[in-house]
Specification:
globular, two-stranded antiparallel ribbon, binds nicotinamide-adenine-dinucleotide, oxidoreductase activity, acting on the CH-OH group of donors, NAD or NADP as acceptor, alpha/beta, AKR, about 270 residues, 2,5-diketo-D-gluconate reductase A, eight-stranded parallel sheet
């Protein structure tokens, strides 16, 4: 199965479906990412703070898959902001991953208390120019924090942000659309904390002979989001990858859109420092 790609505002492409490794135990990461690569995933989303970049790197090296067939993202943690410090942090991530470049490097959180994400962001294009990352972007910059980033004139290729049917980033979306910044939806399944099977999603899933998780992933794809659900379980990895043989109708997409209720399931960027 070839996963569709999206073209970013810097002209580069990204596989629209990937595999996320948040909360994947460093000891288990090599096995789990190996499973994901065998299932067919070619896009892996990690972060320095997940502590599992080494396991991701080992799985990639062992797989024998050509580097240019893989898309790897990592993220700068909150205590490594600043121009010089972020460059050192990126170097450490590359070392752990065993790669000479990532495909996408993100500022993980705006950390408003530290008040230096703009300085950090202004250093990011040089990492791209030096070939340490192909694309650059931000994460968790919502309508409160994205304007300062946009004011620099350096436009992120993506904003990786909490996004699932009951929390669709309604206030941030107009800015993202205006600047052609792709939504990377984290917590795409609501982190398993919302009983989506018991909503209209359950009915739509039954109508297509698919699971609630596959139905939500399909909704993300049709909404144009980049999405990388996480599972330690190989059957679920395969299930989450098996989403290209059905299509939601316009009315079904609209019904899922209607689940928006402002209910985030994880950290508010104003409070993560
Ligand atoms: P998710 O929405 O992908 O939920 C994962 C959980 O959903 C699993 O632990 C499991 O309990 C359940 N699940 C997965 N597949 C299922 C299936 N087929 N059927 C039933 N249940 C299933 O949440 P996530 O892991 O938080 O988000 C995905 C990825 O996004 C992460 O792994 C990470 O790469 C990224 N992320 C980024 C940030 C950020 O701040 N940038 C924050 C959280 C996550």
């Amino acid at each position: 199965m070839t996963v569709p790609t999206l073209t970013l505002n810097d002209g580069k492409t990204i596989p629209q479906l990937g595999f996320g490794v948040f909360k994947v135990d460093p000891e288990e990461t090599e096995r789990i990412v190996t499973d994901a690569l065998e299932v067919g995933y070619r896009h892996i989303d990690t972060a320095a703070v997940y502590g599992n970049e080494e396991g991701v790197g080992r799985a990639i090296a062992k797989s024998g898959i050509a580097r240019d067939e893989l898309f790897v993202t990592t993220k700068l943690w909150n205590d490594r902001h600043g121009a010089d410090e972020s460059k050192r942090a990126l170097g450490e991530s590359l070392e752990k991953l065993g790669l000479d470049h990532v495909d996408l490097y993100l500022i993980h959180w705006p950390t408003p208390e530290n008040n230096n994400s703009v300085e950090t962001w202004e250093a990011f294009p040089s990492y791209r120019d030096q070939g340490l990352t192909t694309s650059i972007g931000v994460s968790n910059f919502d309508h409160r924090y994205l304007p300062q980033i946009l004011d620099t004139g350096i436009i992120p290729a993506v904003d990786q942000i909490e996004c699932h049917p009951q929390f669709q980033q309604i206030e941030t979306r107009p800015l993202l659309t205006e600047h052609d910044i792709k939504v990377e939806a984290w917590g795409p399944l609501g982190q398993g904390k919302v009983d989506y099977a018991d909503t209209v999603i359950g009915e739509i899933a039954s109508a297509h002979g698919k699971s609630w998780a596959q139905t939500i992933i399909r909704w993300h794809l049709q909404r144009g989001h980049v999405v990388f659900p996480k599972s330690n379980n190989r059957d679920r990895m395969a299930q989450n990858f098996d989403v290209f043989d059905f299509e939601l109708t316009t009315a079904e997409v609209a019904a899922i859109d209607g689940l928006e209720n402002g209910g985030r399931v994880s950290g508010d960027p104003a409070e993560v420092n």
